[in-house]
Amino acid sequence: MELHCFKKLLPLQVRTQLANQFKSLRKTVACLTNVNKFYGEGSVQVKALDNLNLEVFQGDYLAVMGASGSGKSTAMNILGCLDRPTNGTYKLNGTAVEKLDDDMLADIRNKELGFVFQQFHLLQEISALENVMLPMIYACVPSIERENRAKEALNKVGLGNRMTNLPNQLSGGQQQRVAIARAIINQPSLLLADEPTGALDSKTTEDVLNLFDQLHHQGITIVLVTHEDNVAQRAKKIARFRDGKVVEISQN
Ligand SMILES: Nc1ncnc2c1ncn2[C@@H]1O[C@H](COP(=O)(O)OP(=O)(O)OP(=O)(O)O)[C@@H](O)[C@H]1O
Ligand SMILES: [Mg+2]
Q1: What is the pLDDT of residues 22-50, one digit of tens each?
Q2: Which residue minimizes the CA distance to atom 5 of ligand 1?
Q3: Residue 213: inside a domain, yes or no?
Q4: In the structure, what pLDDT confidence band is assigned to residue 8 with cuts at 50, 70 and 90?
């Protein structure tokens, strides 16, 4: 009998216990606890995050949704160590990030985190290959290995024949695939994507989502912000933000 059929026969209480036990076996990659983030001061102060709690487990593929201004990018920037909480704790693979100095943060960003943004953020004056090699320079990977790994990554995202092109010689979807190759080149424990398909047409969106599916199946932990239901449906879980906190987490 298929496992899922077997599970349906179990009483709810037993299923819940099993689910909780399974959950406790999964490693927590990122954990935000009671995180607040304020921008500005006095009468112009904005509370972007309001006692936010969010746990990301190894192998998760989590979509983050919510109205504009609900704090999604602020949370992503904190998860990605691009910004710090005003207060509260952020643990990345068990390390309390708020205790690290700027150099240590830069190191952790390079080794543990990969980013994909709506506007790609590739360096315009260097080739696709050089863009993908860049994070390995900061990680002190020897040059031959840098080039080999970058070529392999670009082949994997289907751009083996466009490696020497500058970003502006590539389509939006191709640029985003270069950005994804760059984001995963140091095998990060967490891949963060803030509206990665926001600037893409539907065909190119599909290509990029197929790539995220592949990465998820390879075991990469993904958190992806989107406004689009069809994009969120491709993830395994959806966290809904409202007014700087998570108001619902659902399984797909
Ligand atoms: N650097 C900043 N300075 C001041 N206020 C900011 C700053 N960044 C964000 N905010 C404010 O914090 C709140 C949350 O912004 P955030 O960018 O996290 O929202 P979001 O959910 O990502 O929205 P969108 O879907 O439009 O991208 C908003 O009210 C925004 O105006
Ligand atoms: Mg945003």
Answers
A1: 666 789 999 999 999 999 998 899 999 99
A2: 39
A3: yes
A4: low
